[in-house]
Design a protein that fits this description.
The chain is an alpha+beta fold and about 230 residues long. It has 2 domains: about 100 residues, Glutaredoxin (3-Layer(aba) Sandwich), CATH 3.40.30.10; about 100 residues, Glutathione S-transferase Yfyf (Class Pi), Chain A, domain 2 (Up-down Bundle), CATH 1.20.1050.10. The protein contains 9 helices and 4 strands, in the order βαβαββααααααα. This is Glutathione S-transferase N-terminal domain-containing protein. Pfam families: GST_C (PF00043), GST_N (PF02798). Belongs to the GST superfamily.
C-alpha cells in the first residue's frame, strides 16, 4: 500500500497518474496547502520541504520499515523501479526518459510555476516578470514541440517523463500560450487526456478539493508565498 500525500496541483497529479496507470494499491492523504496543512509536524517528518506530493510505501522492496519520499521526480523514479514500468531497462532508453524527467523538474515546473505566480497570484503585476516567464514557458514548449515531432510520447514510449510534463503543459492557456504555436504538443496533450488512467487521476480533484479557487484567497497566498527561513 502506498500512502499518497496529495493536493490538486500539477505536481500532485504526476504521482496520481502513475498510480492509476499501474494499479498499485494506494490511498490518498489530502494535504490542503491553502489551509497550511503542509506545516503539520507529522507531514514534515515525511516531507521536510513542506511541499506535496509525498509518499509512504508501507511495503518497500527491501522488506524494511515503511519508506517515505518527497519530491515528485524522485517519487516517480522510485515507483517506476518498484513496479518495473514506465522506465526502460535499456541504458540509452532509460536515460532518455530520465533526462526529460529532469528537464521538467528543472525547467518546465519552475518556469511555468513562476509564470502562474506573477500572472495570477502576485499582489502587484510586474510587466517585466510576467513577460520573462511567459516567454521562457514558450521557449520550453518549443523544445517539447520539436521533441515530439515523429513521436507519440516524449521519449518514444509512454513513460514517467510524460506523466511529469503533462500536468504543467495542460495549463498552457493559464500560462498565456497559444496552442497553435505548438502543433505537436497539442496532439500529445490530446493523446494524454484520452488515457483512462489520466482521466481517473484528474477525477480525484472532485473528491478531494471542493473549492478550486481556495488558493486565491489572501490567507492562502500568505501561507504559500510568505514563508521565511
Amino acid at each position: 500500500m502506498i500512502d499518497l500525500y496529495y493536493w490538486t496541483t500539477p505536481n500532485g497529479h504526476k504521482v496520481s497518474i502513475f498510480l492509476e496507470e499501474t494499479g498499485l494499491d494506494y490511498r490518498v492523504r489530502p494535504v490542503h496547502i491553502g489551509k497550511g496543512e503542509q506545516f503539520q509536524p507529522d507531514f514534515l517528518k515525511i516531507a521536510p520541504n513542506n511541499r506535496i506530493p509525498a509518499i509512504v510505501d508501507q511495503a518497500p522492496a527491501d522488506g524494511g520499515e515503511p519508506l517515505a519520499l518527497f519530491e515528485s521526480g524522485a517519487i516517480l523514479e522510485y515507483l517506476a523501479e518498484k513496479s518495473g514500468r514506465f522506465l526502460p531497462q535499456d541504458l540509452r532508453a532509460r536515460f532518455q526518459v530520465r533526462q526529460w524527467l529532469h528537464w521538467q523538474m528543472g525547467g518546465v515546473g519552475p518556469m511555468a510555476g513562476q509564470n502562474h505566480h506573477f500572472s495570477l497570484y502576485a499582489p502587484e503585476k510586474i510587466p517585466y516578470a510576467i513577460e520573462r516567464y511567459v516567454k521562457e514557458t514558450a521557449r520550453l514548449y518549443g523544445v517539447l514541440d520539436r521533441q515530439l515531432a515523429g513521436r507519440e510520447y516524449v521519449a518514444g514510449d509512454y513513460s514517467i517523463a510524460d506523466m511529469a510534463i503533462y500536468p504543467w503543459a495542460k495549463l498552457w492557456e493559464r500560462q498565456q500560450q497559444k496552442l497553435e504555436d505548438f502543433p505537436q504538443m497539442a496532439l500529445w496533450l490530446a493523446r494524454m487526456a484520452a488515457r483512462p488512467a489520466v482521466q481517473r487521476a484528474y477525477a480525484l480533484v472532485e473528491q478531494v478539493n471542493n473549492d478550486p479557487q481556495a488558493l486565491m484567497s489572501a490567507e492562502a497566498r500568505q501561507l504559500l508565498f510568505g514563508q521565511p527561513a
